[in-house]
Amino acid sequence: MFIAMNRFQVAPGSEAEFEQVWKSRESHLHTVPGFVEFHLLRGPQREDHVLYASHTIWKDRESFEGWTRSDAFRAAHRGAGQTKVLYLGPPQFEGFEVIQTVGHPGPGA
After folding, report:
1. What's the start-to-end Cα distance of the chain, in Å?
2. Structural domain harbouring 49
3. One digit per residue, pLDDT tens: the chain, 109 residues?
4. Within a domain: residue 103?
5. Do the domain assignments include residue 48?
6. What CATH number does the domain containing 39 carry?
7. Looking only at Cα atoms, what is the longest distance across the chain?
């Protein structure tokens, strides 16, 4: 499993607009082999920004890298430059290979 994250420092007062951009976009993720799950995360508020992260789970690193080279990726990011005024600086990418997963044992376990 591979987790891809982008961190965004969103300008104060732009949180609702930033969230709406993400909620209303067509991500095309569901069409990509190896895609598992996506989350948009809101983190702590600082004096000059609110931290957000996009968190995507993939079957493996190869699936994620395939996504970044796909037509679906280009379509999903087509208008990305238009929202730069909402956040401070470029997003910061972090990629993680999953080493261990611990799940809830479920009922009766």
Report:
1. 25
2. 2-97
3. 999 999 999 999 999 999 998 898 888 898 899 999 999 999 999 999 999 999 999 999 999 999 999 888 888 777 666 666 788 888 899 999 999 999 988 887 6
4. no
5. yes
6. 3.30.70.100
7. 51
pLDDT for res 83: 60
Cα(109)–Cα(97) distance, integer angstroms: 28
Query: In the structure encoding, which two tokens stand for residue 45, read together?
Result: 């508020």
How far is the C-alpha of 94 from the C-alpha of 4, rounded, in Å? 6
- What is the distance between the alpha carbons of residues 48 and 89, in angstroms, rounded to a whole number? 12
**H-type alpha helices, the chain:** 15-24, 61-68, 71-76
Question: How many Å apart are CA 14 and CA 6, to the nearest integer?
Answer: 18
Q: Whole-model pTM?
A: 0.84
Give residue 13's region: left, alpha or beta (phi > 0; psi -120 to 50): left
